[in-house]
Amino acid sequence: MPEGKIVKALSGFYYVADGGRILQCRGRGVFRKRKVFPLVGDFVEYQAENDLEGYILAIEERKNELIRPPIANVDQAILVFSAARPDFSPALLDRFLVLIESKQIEPLICITKIDLLNEEDEAAITRYADDYRSFGYKVILTSSEKLANLEELSSHLQGKTSVFAGQSGVGKSSLLNALKPELELKTDDISESLGRGKHTTRHVELISVENGLVADTPGFSSLELTEIEAEDLPYYFPEMAERSHSCKFRGCLHINEPKCAVKAAIDAEEVPLYRYEHYLQFMDEIKERKPRY
């Protein structure tokens, strides 16, 4: 049975890419009965009716899926944050990172508009970048004018399915336009791409960029930590996860427990205090969440 990957979903049709061709497919009724619906990014088995059309017969197991945008099997998220206009927000970046870590998606941090900073502020952003690299994250700094380091960014896109996420106005569309000018994305928002106006159907599509696939809609429109449990949160902070085995108690939440290796690292300034403060904020948010039934 031939296999392919769904690269677009629109009006009940799924567009399956297999080698050099794309077939317009419908899902078999069995999916509706099971309440399993194909998503963009799914690897599927299909049956071709002719060179242009076919039916999806089976969906392979997903390694992850997002609700908004509805997409599966994402390899990496490009988190685009500006150094200025709007100002860099480590608290918001950490929220994105936790969400992405929880979905087993590899993050790549891209900080834009470095050229808008004075010397003192640029030094502060460089310190943040060094911090996040020390946690194990990849960080790229770019300017708004020359969009420097595009080659480095493009090398990370190759062979991967990626989503771009971050605050509006940080330069997501400018980055994609620079990588692939024929997209002609409006620079206010990626979601207005491909010429879609306000009255046309919104859909998710994977577009080919630098030998990889990029979702043409922003990721994570909801930033609530609704699917994350308190006992899992420490594992989404890499610098805490690597030290947790040295804590006295298994399952240490790094709050009030004695002989906590994470708190010792913070006291020794091995882990920045702002990361721990964000961790405590997220933990409070999770604990105050209403129980789900």
TrEMBL record:
<keyword id="KW-0963">Cytoplasm</keyword>
<comment type="similarity">
    <text>Belongs to the TRAFAC class YlqF/YawG GTPase family. RsgA subfamily.</text>
</comment>
<comment type="subunit">
    <text>Monomer. Associates with 30S ribosomal subunit, binds 16S rRNA.</text>
</comment>
<dbReference type="InterPro" id="IPR012340">
    <property type="entry name" value="NA-bd_OB-fold"/>
</dbReference>
<dbReference type="Pfam" id="PF03193">
    <property type="entry name" value="RsgA_GTPase"/>
</dbReference>
<feature type="binding site">
    <location>
        <position position="254"/>
    </location>
    <ligand>
        <name>Zn(2+)</name>
    </ligand>
</feature>
<dbReference type="InterPro" id="IPR027417">
    <property type="entry name" value="P-loop_NTPase"/>
</dbReference>
<dbReference type="InterPro" id="IPR030378">
    <property type="entry name" value="G_CP_dom"/>
</dbReference>
<keyword id="KW-0378">Hydrolase</keyword>
<feature type="binding site">
    <location>
        <position position="247"/>
    </location>
    <ligand>
        <name>Zn(2+)</name>
    </ligand>
</feature>
<feature type="binding site">
    <location>
        <position position="260"/>
    </location>
    <ligand>
        <name>Zn(2+)</name>
    </ligand>
</feature>
<keyword id="KW-0342">GTP-binding</keyword>
<feature type="binding site">
    <location>
        <begin position="112"/>
        <end position="115"/>
    </location>
    <ligand>
        <name>GTP</name>
    </ligand>
</feature>
<keyword id="KW-0547">Nucleotide-binding</keyword>
<keyword id="KW-0699">rRNA-binding</keyword>
<dbReference type="Pfam" id="PF16745">
    <property type="entry name" value="RsgA_N"/>
</dbReference>
<feature type="domain" description="EngC GTPase">
    <location>
        <begin position="72"/>
        <end position="221"/>
    </location>
</feature>
<dbReference type="InterPro" id="IPR004881">
    <property type="entry name" value="Ribosome_biogen_GTPase_RsgA"/>
</dbReference>
<keyword id="KW-0690">Ribosome biogenesis</keyword>
<dbReference type="InterPro" id="IPR031944">
    <property type="entry name" value="RsgA_N"/>
</dbReference>
<dbReference type="InterPro" id="IPR010914">
    <property type="entry name" value="RsgA_GTPase_dom"/>
</dbReference>
<keyword id="KW-0479">Metal-binding</keyword>
<feature type="binding site">
    <location>
        <begin position="166"/>
        <end position="174"/>
    </location>
    <ligand>
        <name>GTP</name>
    </ligand>
</feature>
<keyword id="KW-0862">Zinc</keyword>
<comment type="function">
    <text>One of several proteins that assist in the late maturation steps of the functional core of the 30S ribosomal subunit. Helps release RbfA from mature subunits. May play a role in the assembly of ribosomal proteins into the subunit. Circularly permuted GTPase that catalyzes slow GTP hydrolysis, GTPase activity is stimulated by the 30S ribosomal subunit.</text>
</comment>
<protein>
    <recommendedName>
        <fullName>Small ribosomal subunit biogenesis GTPase RsgA</fullName>
        <ecNumber>3.6.1.-</ecNumber>
    </recommendedName>
</protein>
<keyword id="KW-0694">RNA-binding</keyword>
<feature type="binding site">
    <location>
        <position position="252"/>
    </location>
    <ligand>
        <name>Zn(2+)</name>
    </ligand>
</feature>
<feature type="domain" description="CP-type G">
    <location>
        <begin position="63"/>
        <end position="223"/>
    </location>
</feature>
